[in-house]
Input
Amino acid sequence: MRTTVVVQFGVPVDGIRMTELRSAHWYGGDDRNAYIHRAWMRRGLPGDALNGSKPQIAIANTASDLTPCNMHLNEVADAVKQGVWEAGGVPLNLPVVSLGETQVKPTAMLWRNMAAMAMEEMFRANPIDGLVLLGGCDKTIPALLMAAASVNLPAIVVPGGPMLTGHFRGAPLGCGTDVWRLSEEARAGVISNEEFIASEQSMIRSKGHCNTMGTASTMAVMAEALGMTIPGFAGTPAPDSRLLAMSHETGSLIVSMVAADRRPSGIMTKDAFINAIVAIAAVGGSTNSVVHLLAIAGRVGVTLTLDDFDAAGAGVPVLANLQPSGEFLMDDLYRAGGLLSLLSQVKDLLRPEPITVTGEPFVSYLTGQPVFDETVIRPRENPLMMDAGIAVLRGNLAPRGAIIKPSAATPALLSHTGPAVVFDSVEDMRTRIDDPELDVTAESVLVLRGCGPKGYPGMPEVGNMPIPRKLLEQGVRDMVRISDARMSGTAYGTVVLHTAPEAAAGGPLGLVRDGDLITLDVPNRRLHLDVTNEELATRTPGPATVSAFATPTRGWAKLYVDHVMQADLGADLDFLVGSSGDQVDRESH
Ligand code: FES
Output
């Protein structure tokens, strides 16, 4: 048993007893192995840094020049380091696999599980007592949380923060959302292609991730509502000096978390996941949160199902008037009071027990949080939308479920029956969608298959198919679209996603033919293909995939296709479900 002085949430606390540190198994003792572990690590560290009494804190850092949303995280890591040193720990920068949503092909989602697996193994393999998880761009926070849950070492997330709002010709630009909007306007001839391209240099105004309530912002909300950040951190803009101040505090807090042995499994309980679902519904968050929450829950041993999303989220009002559901952007949310102010208004919908990384209940931070702009954070009695959340649909077209985000949909299309127009792959869709001869009307239901976890592979964000050009020119801006794909968190429309099982796994989506009537009935949570079982039994599935990449013979893609689970289980690999803990039994020397 060793004793050290640590700092708790920025306040020095004397006499917290540090139980024998995990890292002491590397650095403690006087044998040859301890000699080797210490000697190679000294390199200017203070003499007592490796005597087995100071918590070794890894700063899992997704900074990368190829992940533009996370490029600033080295500066953030420096602030974390200062806090760790002050609290009596030893900070260690640990670069981990990073995923730039806009850059990596064929889709960042293919690599989420790989990143999580690599992180988990490095967390376990190294002499580490606690983790600070630096993320931002879409997949980085979920991958970090999946890894931290699997190794179950004390951990805190630092969300890298959204960028400031850029403007084009006097109007604010929402990252992603306005790309979709402007590109559709260019395709419809409302603006020229030159005007569309001219907006490019205004889109990204500063460091940070997308400034809409897209997936990255949603993941920060998720992490905070799960209890895995310092309360009040999520949504702090990347260039804001308070981001560095809270990062500094995080460095101090993780040292006391090690002393308190406060681990993810004690924070991310079932009720904490319910709180995350409620919080994401209240901000109108991304549909991608479903697969990520399911995967994280699987890693920490919590039984979470699609039905939990509908049950916990359906009665929650959307209070954040943010794109893509609403009008404003992330720095407006921060100016209006931030996430805690918003969640204060739905405190009664949150479970009271779950604690945060501070050891205090999350809901204890939801008092005395005024709202400064009710046009951004709408009052409970005047929400942006009632009963939003994420609706889970079932029926003969989605036996294991599909999802839709009603707040991003056209209300009149939430109950709709129309004839199917089927595309067998994203390439097929892109080839034919603007064909003047395509037999499609505003009442049609666009169906896209071959884009699920196995079929693509990797479940890309292509579910928000473009509206056929000839309909755009008629003024049509939304249609019912159904796929086994995902959708960008910045996108919008009446888009049914994550249909399970996917076509490539034998799901009925593979049996749909052009002209089949499909009924979307969101109020009754139904997705129905109006074809008899007898007729379906005679049909041969359409091609599940047209991509050679979808039948890989080696590398990560082969491992992924052989083991990835369906969307209703979070699209994690089957052998990564559950926690392996932090134990390493054998010596390397
Ligand atoms: Fe990184 Fe949007 S592309 S958060």
Remarks:
- Residues 393-550 form a domain with the Glucose Oxidase; domain 1 fold (CATH 3.50.30.80).
- DSSP finds 20 helices and 18 strands in the chain.
